[in-house]
């Protein structure tokens, strides 16, 4: 099912019993977070956390008439509903089919491809003259303080927009990008733009700086590259940053497939608007902005227009992050607001992160399923992967493979570290294809039985997630790979490998048939 906008999605959540409306007045400072955290971690019948319901707060302190939606993706069922599938593996299978299209050899093959070609037509976004996001337009009187932005945790540096779709355009290629980068609200007109240096938005920013530097006598392109590597603080202090700006638009409150697309690690040449079209099987409608040369989702609840200055950094953070710890304060670019457009009575969509499991856990598991067929393009020997929620997704990856030659597990580790956002994976554990990586108990049993630590653990250095507070340097540290596959004589293991204890099928069948006789029901 494709949802036209956030309101269509909310109505479906309501019909499905997945939405709780809260009419009591709540404070966006800390109180909404505490309520949502308790709901997302609630257990039913002694089982694991279920994720609770999506929450719609209808009376927000200090913001008369405002409505806040949170926890919309906070369960497996809602994640499936958001993407219109009965199982997340359905999307992986669709991706697999697209990736395995072969050239048609005859009329019958061409006829079989027609439905797929029709589906392709649904992927590309289309620009329309106007849309609901233009119902109200504010320029001189636009203020970020009008939004019911949350302060999530006690030691946060302030209020943060946590579910924005940040839209930029590559100054070099003209390609658009949609990323989800938190924004700390400083005042009515400015906010921090937390795009980590490995993100596409940050690369657009650096490309704008390179171009500004090339047009300026004061800063060389080489100096800009040094700044990009160092984080920019020292060069900013010297006053050598080139003047200029990068235009930015921010959409808040879109249909669920589009919101989710902003966090999907798409291939470099694929726009997130196309990813959303693929997921929802319906083109994303875009409209031109009022004050910047960008296109935004026509059905968004709220759109912020503005720019990021190339010659300005400001302290952003601390912020209570998905690691369960506060990410530390650092210097980031500053977003300057030029216009706000929104729907009548806009709904502010947001999320919170913290100690798992929370809403982002279910979003991360969806990414895991969708990313699997893309991983197999480069590493076809991969059978399955699991990014445990407790591993914060970038700290631990469990991988099963069809092992074919000595050192195969190590080849897979290095291949994963070369795959886009997977480069941040701190620990990779590789097991044989008969191990169910979704069963943590089985992985623990097999992996710890199969390894000789000195022989089977390897370390390497490389880029790490900016939120990794344990790395030796910001954005740079070590990673660990564990080869927990069975060892072969060609890998130097000349002892017999023992058989796993398994009951024979005849006895299992006998006991199953006689089970009631034993009186053990």
TrEMBL record:
Database matches in SUPFAM superfamilies: FMN-binding split barrel, UbiD C-terminal domain-like
**Tell me, what is an example of a GO biological process annotation in this record?**
ubiquinone biosynthetic process
One Pfam family cited in the UniProt record for this chain: UbiD
Q: Which GO terms describe its molecular function?
A: 4-hydroxy-3-polyprenylbenzoate decarboxylase activity
Source domain of life = Bacteria
According to the entry, every stretch annotated as the 3-octaprenyl-4-hydroxybenzoate carboxy-lyase-like N-terminal domain falls at 10-95
- List the GO cellular component terms: cytosol
Signal peptide limits: none
- 3-octaprenyl-4-hydroxybenzoate carboxy-lyase-like C-terminal domain mapped to chain residues: 362-484
Give start and end of each 3-octaprenyl-4-hydroxybenzoate carboxy-lyase-like Rift-related domain: 128-356
Q: What is this protein called?
A: UbiD family decarboxylase
Name the species this protein comes from.
Candidatus Korobacter versatilis
Higher taxonomy: Bacteria, Pseudomonadati, Acidobacteriota, Terriglobia, Terriglobales
